[in-house]
Structure formats: structure tokens, C-alpha cells
Automatic annotation (TrEMBL):
Any one biological process term the GO annotation gives: regulation of DNA-templated transcription
Designated name of the protein: CTLH domain-containing protein
Domain CTLH: start-end pairs: 34-92
Lineage, opening ranks: Eukaryota, Viridiplantae, Streptophyta, Embryophyta, Tracheophyta
Spans of repeat WD: 447-490
Record has Cell division as a keyword: no
Domain of life of the organism encoding this protein: Eukaryota
């Protein structure tokens, strides 16, 4: 769907809300998937309308879309199950267990068995982990806090949690503008046109013997205010016609003129900086589902849990000149911004392609990776984090993802020739992609590399064989064959997590060394 069609849906949502078509509003939100109404979702959760909660969620995500979605649905169904047990409705609890919760057994069989065993208890609070479970109302409120964190961190909900900043009755205003425009095009415009339908274009008929009014007497033409004009469709004030007509319909053409983006100066290369901007506190009225542009306080999109009180979205490209280039003075090295790229979440690691130097890889705090052409400011590729083959991963990783699905990119890096790139994540694994030009990236290897976070990744080629080096929270450094992912070496003996590796190869020594840095004991090792 085009961006203008998407914006039209938002205008319709605002109109329906203003006209109090509440059920229709939420149905359109769910069917379009453009705007997730957190206030409506909260009300349904607090009221325990579980069927509606899952139906509404279904317009935005499914159980198996990613780890965040899986956790969201699991928490909802677990709460529904516990409430049935609390009411001693065993048959209902068994039905929920079989129909709703069994789908999670393939991801964590031990957890499913533990949930099943609750059926054998007279009071499920006898289970140590549920001993602090209060009443239904408080349990729903606690769960809702967790659900909101998961939704805000879920990449599928990105840009869907904030309603656009619109002035009230925006759709009515646009219709009035259109009617005025149509009236200006009438061959015989009347001073007080009678609008009876929107189904066809407006046209003033020529009365018998009447002369067309001059522009000076027409209240819709010229700048002199006169009585008359179109009746307004809503109480949002009179429409003021623009003195200089423009072509407002050009944006709706199927083939709009192409807009070219300026390229980076031929003599310049760049480096990327991850910037942070102050966060504007939200003072929106929590009872309002749809914020209005008439207010000075516009609600901002909530940040994922764990982030600071700042929003760091853009990636700024700072120009660096070759010695022979005079595009930028040397004293402007840290001042002139050549490109600002909006990744959508906080960048954590970046790397330029070793050959095609306008290609930039970006990894973010929610596990996303992006590939940008900084010359055209075009994002060629975006990938949300997803375990490719969960069944082949260790049980420790599977359990960790079910318990807490939050994953961040710790490091993203190109191979020396730019045909591969690797991503080290904050949970156990590294993923290796192959790059085939343009927007063509393909899954190459997924390695369950370390217990805990994988803090760094690097490429090396001892004996002309490409290898992958990783280090992690488990105090080890490991070397992997880059074609098959076979582990070749494990270096142990560190007293603290290893946070950085720097491979080094000497031609006369058929081994490779690693510089590693450990934060806790502040040690360097070779």
C-alpha cells in the first residue's frame, strides 16, 4: 500500500473516532495493522477479554513471528490458564492447556510440563514460583506491564504505537478544500453554492437569464472577505482559500516524478557517528486514544525497556576528505554532516564495506540489522532478529529466549573481501550472511557460539583459509571455519568475560594471535 493510501487510513481512523464509531475504529486498526491502540489493548487486558485481546493482536503479529511475539502470547494464555485454575474450573483449564499452551511445548518442553503439573495442585500458589500470585486484578496489572515492554521492544510494532500528529477533523478540512477547488473551476460559480452530495464532483448550474458573478463578488475567489461560500462539514473554522492555486492532486498520480538524491562528493569518504537526541517528555492526556495536532503536547512513541531517557535513532555521516580534495576544510572534520540516516532503533555497531565504501552495515539494540547506501540515503536491506533453526540451538539458548526474548547486536562486521558479514548477538549466537550485491543478502551460517553474550566477532585468514573468531561472556575465545561453521579452536583461561578480539597473522608463523580485552580485570592477552 502506498504511503498516501496509508495516510488516508489514518484520516479515516480519526474521522471514525470523532464520530464515536468505536468498534469500527478498532476493527480498522486491527485489519490495516497501521496503528496499535495501546489504550484499547490495556482496557481489554484489564477486563480479561482474552478472545478480543488475541484477535486484536492478530492484526499485528502471530505467535511464531519472533521471540517477542511468542512471549506476548505465552503470557496472555498463561494468565488465562491461571485464572481458570483459580476459579477451580478444571475443564476450562485443560481446554486452555491443550488448545492454547501446547504450541509452546516444542520450544520449552520442561516449562510446559511444569504448567501441566499445576492441574494436580489444589491451589496453584503451592508452586514456589507462583506463591506471590495475588488476586486476578493485580495479576493482570502486573502482566500488562510486561506485555507493554514486549510490545515496545518488538520490531513488528515499530512505528505503529504512535498516532500521527493531525489537526482535528483533518479529513473534513480536506473535503472542504476540495469542494472550494471544484467551485473555483465552475464555469458559472454561484455566490452561495448548494452542496447536496460528495458522490460526484460539484458543478454550479447556469440559472435562466442569470449572469455569472464577477470575481470581485465571488467570496471564494480573491482575498476580500465576503459573506457566503461552502457550508463547512465540521466545526473546525472557516476554510481560507490559498491565494496561489497549486496542483494538489499531483501526489496521487500513479507515477509521480522521480526524485533524485544527491550523491556523496566524489573526493570524500565518510565515517558514521551514532547520535543521541534529547527525549521530549510526553504530557498527553492518557484518556485520549488519538492525539491532536492542536495541542502543544504530542505523545511520543514509548521506548523499549532498558533504554535511557534519550532516543538515539539517526546515524550521521561525517565527511572526511582526501588530501587532494578541497570539498571540506580540515577544521570542519567533526562539524559538517553529510548524511543523516534514520535506522528506527538505537544503533549499536556499524561497519563500512571494504570495497564498496558507500555501503554501511548497522546493527541495533533490538537485534535488527540494516544495510544502507549512504550515497543515496537508501536502506537496501532490513532484517529483524530471528533464530534460523531454533531446534538445533542449545536448550540453554531456547530457555533463555523464552524467559527473556530481548536481544541486541553487539558487533556487526564485513569479511575482508566483503562477500560475507557477521553479526554477534547478546545471546549465545552469531549469524553469518553472504552478500551478493545490491539488496541481495542470504543466510550462510548460524553458530551457537558462547554461553551468554557474544561480545565481538572478527574475520581472519591464516593459511589462506577464512576463519571467524568470537569471544563472549563465558570467558572464552573460539575460532570457526567460515565455510561450514566447524569449530577449530577454543582459547580458555581468562578470568573474566572477553569483550574484544583483534586477529593478527604473521606470514612466517603459521598460527594467528588474538588481542583480547577484558573489562573486569582490565587485562590484555595474546
Amino acid at each position: 500500500m502506498s504511503s498516501l493510501s496509508r495516510e488516508l487510513v489514518f484520516l479515516i481512523l480519526q474521522f471514525l473516532d470523532e464520530e464515536k464509531f468505536k468498534e469500527t475504529v478498532h476493527k480498522l486498526e486491527q485489519e490495516s495493522g497501521f496503528y496499535f491502540n495501546m489504550k484499547y489493548f490495556e482496557d481489554e487486558v484489564i477486563n480479561g477479554n482474552w478472545d478480543e485481546v488475541e484477535r486484536y493482536l492478530g492484526g499485528f503479529t502471530k505467535v511464531d513471528d519472533n521471540r517477542y511475539s511468542m512471549k506476548i502470547f505465552f503470557e496472555i494464555r498463561k494468565q488465562k490458564y491461571l485464572e481458570a485454575l483459580d476459579k477451580h474450573d478444571r475443564s476450562k483449564a485443560v481446554e486452555i492447556l491443550v488448545k492454547d499452551l501446547k504450541v509452546f511445548a516444542s520450544f520449552n518442553e520442561e516449562l510446559f510440563k511444569e504448567i501441566t503439573q499445576l492441574l494436580t495442585l489444589e491451589n496453584f500458589r503451592e508452586n514456589e514460583q507462583l506463591s506471590k500470585y495475588g488476586d486476578t486484578k493485580s495479576a493482570r496489572a502486573i502482566m500488562l506491564v510486561e506485555l507493554k515492554k514486549l510490545i515496545e521492544a518488538n520490531p513488528l510494532f515499530r512505528d505503529k504505537l504512535q498516532f500521527p500528529n493531525l489537526k482535528s477533523s483533518r479529513l473534513r478540512t480536506l473535503i472542504n478544500q476540495s469542494l472550494n477547488w471544484q467551485h473555483q473551476l465552475c464555469k458559472n460559480p454561484r455566490p452561495n453554492p448548494d452542496i447536496k452530495t460528495l458522490f460526484v464532483d460539484h458543478s454550479c448550474g447556469q440559472p435562466n437569464g442569470a449572469r455569472a458573478p464577477s470575481p470581485a463578488n465571488n467570496p471564494l475567489l480573491g482575498s476580500i472577505p465576503k459573506p457566503g461560500g461552502f457550508p463547512q462539514l465540521g466545526a473546525h473554522g472557516p476554510f481560507q482559500p490559498a491565494p496561489t492555486p497549486v496542483a494538489p492532486l499531483a501526489g496521487w498520480m500513479s507515477n509521480p516524478p522521480a526524485v533524485t538524491h544527491p550523491a556523496v562528493s566524489g573526493g570524500a569518504i565518510g565515517f558514521a557517528a551514532m547520535l543521541k537526541h534529547p527525549r521530549t517528555p510526553s504530557a498527553a492526556n492518557p484518556s485520549m486514544d488519538y492525539p491532536s495536532g492542536d495541542s502543544d503536547h504530542v505523545s511520543k512513541r514509548p521506548r523499549p525497556v532498558g533504554l535511557s531517557e534519550e532516543v538515539n535513532l539517526p546515524v550521521n555521516m561525517m565527511p572526511v576528505t582526501y588530501p587532494q580534495s578541497h570539498s571540506y576544510p580540515q577544521d570542519d572534520f567533526h562539524k559538517a554532516v553529510a548524511r543523516t540516516l534514520s535506522q528506527g532503533s538505537a544503533p549499536m555497531s556499524m561497519d563500512f564495506h571494504p570495497v564498496q565504501q558507500t555501503l554501511l552495515l548497522v546493527g541495533t539494540n533490538v537485534g535488527d540489522i540494516g544495510l544502507w547506501d549512504v550515497g543515496t540515503k537508501e536502506r537496501l536491506v532490513v532484517r529483524n532478529f530471528k533464530v534460523w533453526e531454533l531446534g538445533k540451538c542449545s536448550m540453554a539458548l531456547q530457555a533463555a529466549l523464552v524467559k527473556d526474548p530481548t536481544v541486541s547486536v553487539n558487533r556487526i562486521i564485513w569479511s575482508p573481501d566483503g562477500t560475507l558479514f557477521g553479526v554477534a548477538y547478546s545471546r549465545h549466537i552469531v549469524q553469518i550472511y553472504s552478500y551478493h550485491g545490491g539488496d541481495d543478502i542470504r543466510q550462510h551460517l548460524e553458530i551457537d557460539a558462547h554461553v551468554g553474550g557474544v561480545n565481538d566477532i572478527a574475520f581472519a585468514h591464516p593459511n589462506k583459509q577464512l576463519c571467524i573468531i568470537t569471544c563472549g561472556d563465558d570467558k572464552t575465545i573460539k575460532v570457526w571455519e567460515a565455510t561450514s561453521g566447524t569449530k577449530q579452536f577454543t582459547f580458555e583461561g581468562h578470568e573474566a568475560p572477553v569483550y574484544s578480539v583483534c586477529p593478527h597473522y604473521k606470514e612466517n608463523i603459521q598460527v594467528h594471535l588474538f588481542n583480547c580485552f577484558r573489562w573486569k580485570d582490565k587485562g590484555m592477552a595474546l
